[in-house]
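Next comes this protein:
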Amino acid sequence: MYRALIEDIFYEPEETEETEETTFPATDKDLLILTERFLAFEIPSKVFLQAIAIADYDGAAAFRYVDSYLNTLKNKNKRKHKKLLVLGASTRFDNN
């Protein structure tokens, strides 16, 4: 009896009920937008095909996947550029 009373007092529907998100596949227009995002970068075909496969089930997840991949790619390029600047600066000092 007391257990039922405590459950009623502390019942929070957000925590106990699972809310299911509805997913929608990407439209043709969405696929074109995904493709345009990839055009500015040289990417492996596996990554592109994976994004298309994800878009077949969940368009929003495909956009998150593309954004995540491109952010990772941009960060790697920034690190490479910084290393090249440091190496270039160190070789200039060695030559003097």
About this structure: Residues 24-95 form one domain. Helices lie at 2-9, 13-16, 28-39, 45-57, 59-95. The longest helix spans residues 59-95.
